[in-house]
Amino acid sequence: MNYKTFTGMVLRHDPLRETDEIVTFWSWEEGKVRLLVRGVRKQDSRLKTILSPLTWLALHAVPSSYLPVVTSAKAIKSFSGISSSLNGFALIFGVFEMVLKTTPDGQPNEELTMLLRKGLEHLDEGKSAGLDFMIDFKLGLFSALGYQLSFSRCVHCQSENSEREGQTGHFSQLAAGLLCKNCHYRFSDAKSTDLRLFQYLNKLGSTETQFLITPAGDYLKKQADGLLSDFLLFVTEREMKSKKFLEQNIKA
Ligand SMILES: [Zn+2]
Fold this sequence. Notes:
Strand content: 15-25%
Structural class: alpha+beta
Number of helices: 6
Domain DNA replication/recombination mediator RecO N-terminal: 1-79
CATH class of the largest domain: Mainly Alpha
Number of domains: 2
Shape: globular
Mean pLDDT: 87
Bound molecules: zinc ion
Protein name: DNA repair protein RecO
Largest sheet: 5 strands, antiparallel
Function: Involved in DNA repair and RecF pathway recombination.
Low-confidence stretches: none
Organism: Candidatus Doudnabacteria bacterium CG10_big_fil_rev_8_21_14_0_10_41_10
Oligomer: single chain
Number of strands: 8
Distance between the termini: 41 Å
Radius of gyration: 21 Å
InterPro entries: ARFGAP/RecO, DNA_rep/recomb_RecO_N, NA-bd_OB-fold, RecO, RecO_C
Order of helices and strands: EEEHEEHHHEEEHH
């Protein structure tokens, strides 16, 4: 049969009609894909338990006039340890939300696949600290999506961050990073930001994602997470606007 294999994980279930479901799946092969699962909400569906969001799966799907239809699913690895803590559960669904919002359909992304897998493994071991995990995941996500945030050099003039401890630097979403004292006037959205925040994020961003618990204080971590969340929102909204813009202009 002319089927496709998708390896990865379920990000979201959407009920369809009486017993069907549309599953949004993150796959190694094609990135984010939408698949139709027939009869999955019936009591005796054999796919129901396998298609848990905390399992790494291999799916087979056949093309249809609507969406590819899942014909079989095999669990490769279960990360059910995540469900034993409320915190782990909240974190992984936060991760799914971010991936759903920031990725286009049908675009494979090896770096993001590895990041997701690593995140699942880490949370499954139950040693996660919420803020550290989220900060690291967001940095990894930006890198995988091709947004290279700069926290060590001025994005505009490339000068090394020369301001001293205790001083403030500037961060701009439009410029995607740090701006020096000469350049921040050029960007309307530049906000003065604690320099320690840049040093902290720079250190994290320049090493491979490990989801380690860092010794920084809670205040700094909250600031860092806030800055990254704001940037994520900025990126998501910009993508939506440009998609809308393209659609309108193609129609016109
Ligand atoms: Zn500069």
